[in-house]
């Protein structure tokens, strides 16, 4: 079984890389890492932040995959912001559906559903259920921006809709699993959209530059960093067990499909 897991940022993936041995693979500028988890061939893709970056990365993944090398499962993972008060920092959330801030011209529907069997297995493995995730076009820096979307979804990211859309085009089963890095009532300490590199990764130099303009943000930035590490570590623990557990599930599903045909 072949499983693709995506993260926007290297920092989100770092705890998993520390837990399991991954081989770095270079393909046309893609940031790829591969490992073996039981009977699962595991590939991790770092997409960078945002819909354009994630769409480009997923498009390159499709281009490099031969007909017999498409992924069976694609999991959009990483951190997300809470939009509702009931979600707390560090919780691992598996939403049932996704909506995007802007209508995608190449998608006939406004909402995408994740694979139901994979979703139920995620809940059984300890993830918390949620109705919907909102994929935003820009970073929500202020709590007021989150509040404005709270009636539409329970959490927000900037990549999952594009990733699931591409996975559906491949014919892969898709799932979204995100860990909460900031609560609905929290402002981000700085505008991280101003700290991104050309590869849409966080640039430490740009973070320092933003702090130089607002030194009082340092305590909040340190607190947010601690929250993000906690969330990434809990997400790693979940994912490492989950990707090894879904092989038997898919075999069972395939057997039922063959028997029914």
How do the strands and helices of this protein lay out in sequence?
Elements: E1 2-7, H1 10-19, E2 23-27, E3 30-37, E4 40-46, H2 51-64, E5 73-82, E6 92-100, E7 111-113, H3 116-124, E8 128-135, H4 143-148, E9 155-157, H5 160-170, E10 173-182, H6 204-213, H7 218-260
Parallel strand pairs: 1-4, 1-5, 5-10, 6-8, 8-9
Antiparallel strand pairs: 2-3, 3-4, 5-9, 6-7, 6-10
Helix pairs in contact: 1-7, 2-5
What this model shows, in words?
The protein is of the alpha/beta class. The chain has one domain: Nucleoside phosphorylase domain (Rossmann fold, 3-Layer(aba) Sandwich), CATH 3.40.50. The protein has seven helices and ten strands. It has helices spanning 10-19, 51-64, 116-124, 143-148, 160-170, 204-213, 218-260; strands spanning 2-7, 23-27, 30-37, 40-46, 73-82, 92-100, 111-113, 128-135, 155-157, 173-182. The chain has a five-stranded mixed barrel with strand order 5-9-8-6-10. Helix 1 packs across helix 7. It is globular, with a radius of gyration of 18 Å. The model has no long low-confidence stretch (mean pLDDT 90).
């Amino acid at each position: 079984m072949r499983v693709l897991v995506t993260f926007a940022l290297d920092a989100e993936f770092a705890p998993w890389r520390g837990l399991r041995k991954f081989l770095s693979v270079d393909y046309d500028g893609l940031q790829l890492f591969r490992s073996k988890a039981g009977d699962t061939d595991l590939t991790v893709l770092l997409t960078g932040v945002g819909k354009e970056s994630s769409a480009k990365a997923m498009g390159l993944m499709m281009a490099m995959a031969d007909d017999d090398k498409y992924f069976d499962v694609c999991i959009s993972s990483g951190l997300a912001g809470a939009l509702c008060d009931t979600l707390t920092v560090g919780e691992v959330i598996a939403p049932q559906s996704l909506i995007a801030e802007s209508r995608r011209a190449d998608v006939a529907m406004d909402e995408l559903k994740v694979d139901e069997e994979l979703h139920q297995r995620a809940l059984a493995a300890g993830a918390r259920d949620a109705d919907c995730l909102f994929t935003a076009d820009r970073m929500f820096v202020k709590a007021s921006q989150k509040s404005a979307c709270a009636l539409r979804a329970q959490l927000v990211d900037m990549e999952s809709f594009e990733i699931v859309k591409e996975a559906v085009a491949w014919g892969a089963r898709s799932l979204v699993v995100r860990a909460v890095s900031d609560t609905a009532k929290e402002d981000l300490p700085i505008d991280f959209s101003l700290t991104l590199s050309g590869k849409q990764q966080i640039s430490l130099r740009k973070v320092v530059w933003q702090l130089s303009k607002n030194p009082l943000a340092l305590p909040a930035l340190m607190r947010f960093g601690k929250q993000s590490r906690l969330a990434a570590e809990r997400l790693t623990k979940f994912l490492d067990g989950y990707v090894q557990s879904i092989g038997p599930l898919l075999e069972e599903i395939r057997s039922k499909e063959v028997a029914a045909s």
